[in-house]
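In response to a reviewer's request, we include the raw inputs and outputs for one of the modeled complexes. The two entities were modeled together in a single run.
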Amino acid sequence: MTYKILAVLTIMTSASQALEIISDEELVDFSGQNGVYLSGEMALNEFGGPLGQEDDSTVQTVWGSCIEKDAGDVSRCGARLSFKTNTTDGYFVFDDMRGKLSFEGLTIRARELKTGTDNAKFGNDVTEFLEGADGRTVLEVGLPSRVKFEKLNYSIATSSTARPTDSGFVQQDIFGVQLNGTIKMHGNMLIFPSGNE
Amino acid sequence: MNNKAMTLVLMLAVISINARAQLQSMEEDELTEITGEGVSFVIEDFNYDASNGVFGGDLEFKLTGIEDASGQPVDIELSQFYMSGPGSNYGNNIEGNYVNLGRLTHPYTIDMLNGNDLAVGNDNGWYQKAVLEVAAPSLLSAEVNPTTGVPLLRDRKIEDGTIKQTIKFKVDGEGKSTGEFDQYVNEQGEYNLQGYDCNVVNSDKGSGLCSSRPQGAVTDYNGERMDIGLRFDLNFASDSLVDSNVNLFAQNVSFDGSYLRLWGEEGIDIDGQGELDNTLAMEVQFNMFASSMRLNSCDATGTTCGSDINTGPVSIQLALGDAEYGQPLTFDVKSDGNFILEIQSMKTLPTTTDGKFFENYDGKGPGNKMTQAEYEWYEDYYENGRKSSFRVEDVTIGDPTNGGYDFGNSYITNLQIHYLKVTSHDI
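The model returned the following structure tokens for the whole complex.
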């Protein structure tokens, strides 16, 4: 992942040396097709991390790499998010989050809805939606056709302290989720401001 | 990516900087139309399929950490979860079967609301507060203007702390209320439904309250109600329990009128320690309408199944928390890591003796035991407090014409929660 980013940065640097002026005539031909097509991959604590290596011995027995966890040397290698929504004790926790998520075909673009082209797609609601205008632009997020999970784990828990290394730490795991494989989906999410009634 | 393409991208960046200089000021009357509270979204041509190898996919979705009574782990594996257009035939027709979720004129919304527009008067949890709301498409009332799409109606419509519209209940032969929902009526007692029947496929406009349309309401359009299916495998580690499979399917489902509201409350004792706490407070309305449902159990391959439990129309309207009457839903974690989910107990009037209810109340209305004001306060609470209803029609097990059973209809209506506390325990 890191190497890919470095490669792109290198290309950008060399490209910037070759900037050329585009004349107005050339620009007129450029229709400015908007939108982006994204494929991506997000790895979260896939191998655990070095967190804790420089810390005191208590921290080192709790956090470590996933190899250390499998060997039983540490108790956890996944990421943790703790939330507290009030002034009392206790946290709501997403715990042991790790694994990989990749997707292909997420698109983002501005789309103008018009009665002629879109009315049938929305059950004749477009005319009313436009409120007399010729068209209305919305943000369209095309859902990725496939989302692939590789050993994606997380668990939902409630805990007495924010971190497992804090004193008095007690945790009740409610359930855990393990995901591996592909989800198929289809659709465009259209986003627009509300409240302009 | 070659140099030429990169040049174009960089040029576009330059152009966009130039374009910024051309920002135009908006007229005052243009600005008044935009209040910009939140965002709305709809999903066009949606379907979703998470299946394991048996159902044509490769997903392994496991829920872990659940134990049976003897402490042995139970693995719950999701073998299929789909959302698709109508006519999915229990998950056999998902590919290319799309549905829209939400309408452009009645979308899903995420909004900051003015608490003063949500409840009557000023003695409630929302007064002078901003309330974050995530809401499904609205239920349509008589007063919804179809050209503007306003307003979002829940059980009543309120403006500036005053009720503009209420529920009318069905009446029996003697003219007494049966407690069963009939219509929404405005201040003049008029009603005129604008929506579609929430359960009936091929229903027409004016037949009900739902804004999401069924298939067939508009020609050649799949509507906004989806088919949902869930197949679970339960795998027990203990030998005494047999691994099993459970399947749940719902047809033509919409969630109209559902919402989650979040705001901050101060001065509630949510952990039972005696001190007043500041907390996130919630109010939840979960509505689910389906034209039919099926529950059954099959073998591991999903081919040989037991008797089906089939239902006709299903309506679930679950109301949790009631900010208007001082009963928000709160969530707390104790110092031992266990949680408490609580609907705060019903508020008592300051004049009520020792905070207790009227133990010796004779049931005869205002009089010796209860003042007129107290009587009216409770009457208002019982009439207008938030209530849950559940309705399942035409329940059958197996084929009733061939040895199966027909259980008819089941209703629970106007269930009002006075107090609810759910806690987790270590077992």
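As requested, we also summarize the result in words. Chain A touches chain B through 68 residues (CB under 8 Å). Residues 57 and 63 of chain A are 10 Å apart (CA to CA).
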